Amino acid sequence: MNRALAALTACAILVPAACDSGTGKSGGAVETRVYRCESGDQLEVKYLIPAQGPAAATMTYGNKLISMHQEPAASGVLFVADKGFPDYRWHTKGRSGTLVLHRSGNGEGEVLLGECTAP
Known about the structure:
By secondary structure, the protein is mainly β. It has one helix at residues 2-13; strands at 28-36, 42-50, 56-61, 64-71, 77-81, 88-93, 96-101, 110-117. InterPro entries: MliC, MliC_sf.
């Protein structure tokens, strides 16, 4: 699973057109959104939306490239960071998002970037 996600992340970041499965069709879409947050920070998120299955996302925050996979959410879309940065959560609803850091044993988490919106 991690290898498949790494391949999807590489497709999203590097060369989407080169990630053809040999069928002549792309396996999904890559969408980049730039969010402006209440703190004045800007966050660029690249989403890989496959034709089937859950989406993946990548972002750079705090000089770290964070790859994420989609998890079930009560509402909106929840992305959870992969191995290496497992405590990061990116929760979106429509064009708004919040980046939260969940430390081990801490149920609530610390909001790192709140009220982020993309045009």
